[in-house]
Amino acid sequence: MLNDLRRWAAMGATFAMSATATGQQGSKLFLVDFEEYQELTEISDQYASETGATFSIVGDDGLLPIIGEEGSPGVGFIGAGDDNPMSSGSRGLTDPLIDGDLAIPNDIAIDFDPPVTSVRLFAIDIDGTDSVTLRAFDGEREVASDTASVGDAGTGNGVSTEFFVQAESITRVQVEITAEPGGVGWAIDFVTFTRPCEGNGCGPLTEIAQESAPGAGDFDENVLGNLLIYPWLGQASTFYAYNIPEGDSWNGQSLTPVADRSHLLMSATLNGVTLNVVHDRAIPDDPDGGHAEMMIELLGDEDGVTRTVEDDPDDAADVFTGEPGESVFTSAQSWSPCCTDGFALSGFDGAWTAYVQFTSVDGNPDNGVFTGMSEWVAYSADGSEISLALEEGRRVRLVGLPCPADCNGDTILNILDFVCFQLEWQAQSAKGDCDGNGVYNILDFVCFQLAFQNGCGEF
Q1: What is the DSSP letter of 92?
Q2: Choosing a second label site near 459 at 20 to 30 A (CA), which of 90, 108, 198, 299?
Q3: For the whole prediction, is pTM greater than 0.90?
Q4: By the 8 A CB rule, do 266 and 273 touch?
Q5: For the chain, which domains are there?
Q6: What pLDDT shows up at residue 77?
């Protein structure tokens, strides 16, 4: 009987993972930042198995793009200080040397299998006579483009210039460079892209509610909806992307910040479920900067959470409290028009509930609890937004909704959850009794398979 169930569970896992899941649709994000390889390494399909992205040189099967490293004369990044910033770390991707000549331009292509829905990257060092275009295709059809030339905002010697394209389906992008003879020198870095996911591909939900007035506590009567958690195949720090490439700021692709707005979003990262808060925007500059003081109180999570991002960690004007494993965290932050401020807290698990509010925490009555902001908005990975009342002391409640299909609690639904459920069923635990009737039989496996197909939460 047990062997039969094992075979059945394996078959069920294969079926569930190949089935079309139902539920809210969102986007899964991927990142390539080229730090794994040394300078002059040719890049083609090294990232294909993990991300589905393959790199090449447009129109020349005999050439491949190569890794360039800051400070190296071999590929032209020989400046010092601010003259040679890669967007992420010290390495980027550039066109190859041709007979040792750095100044012959070659366009770089990225092919995606399966297709993606958006691509963002940074082109480094658009100066001299350079012009760069990011062109997106669905098959042979061009579906989007983004261009920047010398003199445009955000370009220049040693500057990282953002390019972004989106469409229902993108199978290929080309980064095209034009320049006068001898004038080209460039690289791309911090390439992020998205693919649609739904149901069991997108992970859990977070319920969000806000009390009707400061201290009212009437959250159950004021539930605003559910936030689909952004799935991210990396650390919480790379989801936030602090300081990369815009200094002292959020740079994550999942959010394009709005001036004078505080943004709230949840992500599932390698550090666990993460709460991200971003105040204001950096690109283009916010008109006035601002100040914000916040408190987050966590209940139901015995091992607490950890602050994984501080925006800005070295600014004496920003004060944070709360140590790893604790349940109360505060922040008092001030920022100038150039930048954002914010933070990330990671490791929410169990039957957790968090209360988030703008409230005085720095002990200075001369500082307003929030200045330079007029909006507070929560973001969901399905593209929806939920407006929140920006009022001192008026709390927002976040509740991690249970996900029966996520048996091992890692926020990712895969074959390991089937293995976990089988062990729980063998142990006759409460988690193994999927249908809750007190009897452990084949119907529990049917119940779990259906839960897996439907993903996390109620849709």
Answers
A1: E
A2: 299
A3: no
A4: yes
A5: 2-23+404-454 (no CATH), 36-196 (2.60.120.260), 204-400 (no CATH)
A6: 65
